[in-house]
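Notes, Module 5: Reading structure tokens.

Key idea: the token line is not a picture. It is a compressed description, and you learn to read it the same way you learned to read a sequence, by spotting repeated patterns. We will look at two proteins. The first is printed below with its tokens.
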Amino acid sequence: MKTAVEWYKKEIDSLIEKYESKEISKADFIIMKHNLLYPAKAMEKQQIYEAYDYGFENPNVTGEQYYNETFKSE
């Protein structure tokens, strides 16, 4: 699983490549970049919910342990 920030960075990098290779216009780049915020924010919200729920189920696990178990495998 990727964090919302990691996903957003990957998507932005892909858009930059498309813009630099002239696959998309500057206007398209701006619109597409803006539209990436919505799924990234939704992903972040879901990840917060999951972390909160996990904390209740596993009260002895630290935030760092949760992060490492959930996101560090990639």
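Here is the second protein, with the sequence above and the tokens below, as before.
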Amino acid sequence: MDDVETDVKTLIAGKTVAYHHPIGGGYYVSASTGIYCIDIRKFYVPYGQSDTKPTRRGLALRLHEWPQMKKIVDSINAAHHSLGTALPCYMNDDHQNQLGMLQCYESNPFAQDIFV
């Protein structure tokens, strides 16, 4: 949330932004110069290719809608403490080694099913 907030301020100031960050399960949050919105979108890798492509499943928030989204997230975290204190999967025991990370769908959603 803090990184996105910084990018929103940078976009409003008219400076260059190129932010694209995974948030788990094939979802990414992005912000780019010239596109005045915060995009939260599901991505996929087409068969036989290696580059991710966006799906139609997602949400584009205008920059003036971002503060309201932050308030909603804060109120959800306050009402449901377990959500507000949840740790990313890479901070759990599942990622004690490289194989654990590679087998984790949240960290590596586009991996082929090579671990049968």
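Summary for the second protein:
- DSSP finds four helices and four strands in the chain.
- The radius of gyration is 16 Å.
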